[in-house]
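Before surveying the methods themselves, let us examine one representative protein, pairing a chain with its fold in token form.
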Amino acid sequence: MRTRLSKSERRDQILKKARQILVKQGLAKTEMEDIRLACGISRGGLYHHFSNKRAVLDALAEEEVGLLAEALDDKDASPIIVLLQNGSSHLGADAGVHSALQTLEERLDYISALEQAFSAILKDAVCARMGDFVRDDINAEHVAELFMTVNAHINRREILGHWSSAQAAGFAATSLEALAPLLKSPEELNPILLDLKQRASSS
């Protein structure tokens, strides 16, 4: 007897199956029917949650950014360090569905989805957490905006294939060194900076 899933459970199942299929065969070769068959649901059941592949891609990007937001719950860790460790493929983090993207249009769609998710899910959380780690004479929201802007730039260049992981790591290291004087304890960035510089020089 088939277990009836709740609406949220069904949505999670669809996204899990979609991610697996996308990573295996790429976005271009994946059809909504592939996702439907993998989930064992009707077309109506699938389209009730997602109208097309772009909607699935948007939801997968939101899911990835949501995990970053959850990681910020660690109140003792700098949000900069948390986000770098959990969201930077050039530091060894999971690249997400990035590896499934083949055409320029797909990559631009993914960048758009990420940027929307960052704005909707992550921006306010980063701003709220940054205050505890920025010098008292510096506007913490400005530092958060700077960091998010740099992160978005690195994402764009890497996803579009303009930068290798080593180049992204090098730019990230330079950016962190520029931000470090704004922090209460800039020395906390030293292990991350060392790792980034090692990766940047490995090309």
The chain is about 65% helix and 0% strand. The chain has two domains: 1-51, 60-200. The radius of gyration is 19 Å.
